[in-house]
Each structure stands twice: as structure tokens, then as C-alpha cells.
Write a structure and sequence with these properties.
Blueprint lengths: L2 H5 L7 H96 L4 H8 L3 H11 L6
């Protein structure tokens, strides 16, 4: 007695029946494998769509950042040009009128002008006006 006759006493299996059962099992296995492959393909497709969407968003963000960088570069260049122009004006002003303004401020301090007036009239800083007044202003009597 074999296991088959113990499990299936009334069933006689010949080679054709065994091959049929094996074929059916292989068919079921093939269907199950195909279903799993289909699920995996759908999942992969969904992940691919998400990745493509994220990539498109990253491209848009990169373009926005790039444009922002270009605008910032232009602003910095303009600011540097403006600063260079202002520096040139300051240099010209210092060469033309700085000594004349100081000389005139000294004369006014000798005649009794206070630091506030020197600042306003000659464009001196408060510290410069105080120094001119102390060095060249009228001496106060005690």
C-alpha cells in the first residue's frame, strides 16, 4: 500500500489524471504569478508617476531659484556700480572742497560759531565740528 491508496481509497489515478492535475496546478501557479507581476507593475507605475511629478516640481523650483539668483546678481552688480559712483563723487568732493570747508569752518569758529552751526553750514560731522571749535574757537573766560 502506498500513501495515495490510503488517502484516496476509491480514486484510481492513472498517468493522464496525474498529468492533468499537475497541469492545472501549473496553470494556477502561472495565474498567481501573473497577478503578482501585474500588481508589482501597477505599483511600479504609481511610484514612477510620483517620481516624475516630484522631478517636475524640482525642475520648477530650480528654475525659480535660478531666476532669483540672476535677479540678485543683477542687483548686486547695480549696487556695486552705485557704490563705485558714490566713492568717485566722495573722492572728487574731498579733493575740491574739503580743505576749503575746513578753512572756512576754522574762520567761523574763531569768530564764535558753535559746533552745531559748523555741522550745518559746512557739512562737518559732529566730532569734526567739536574738534574745530575746541582747537580754533574763542576761549571762554572764567
Amino acid at each position: 500500500m502506498n500513501l495515495h491508496s490510503i488517502l484516496f481509497p476509491d480514486l484510481r489515478m492513472d498517468a493522464g489524471t496525474a498529468l492533468g492535475i499537475a497541469g492545472a496546478m501549473l496553470g494556477l501557479l502561472a495565474v498567481a504569478t501573473a497577478c503578482m507581476a501585474l500588481r508589482a507593475a501597477r505599483s511600479l507605475r504609481e511610484r514612477t508617476l510620483i517620481a516624475e511629478s516630484n522631478l517636475a516640481a524640482l525642475r520648477r523650483e530650480l528654475e525659480r531659484v535660478s531666476l532669483s539668483g540672476i535677479k540678485t546678481e543683477r542687483r548686486v552688480k547695480r549696487a556695486e556700480e552705485d557704490a563705485a559712483e558714490v566713492a568717485g563723487r566722495v573722492d572728487q568732493f574731498e579733493l575740491r572742497g574739503a580743505s576749503k570747508s575746513i578753512d572756512e569752518a576754522i574762520d567761523h569758529a574763531r569768530r564764535g560759531a558753535d559746533p552745531g552751526r559748523l555741522t550745518q553750514q559746512f557739512g562737518l560731522s559732529r566730532g569734526e565740528a567739536d574738534l574745530v571749535t575746541r582747537l580754533h574757537g574763542r576761549k571762554k573766560r572764567a
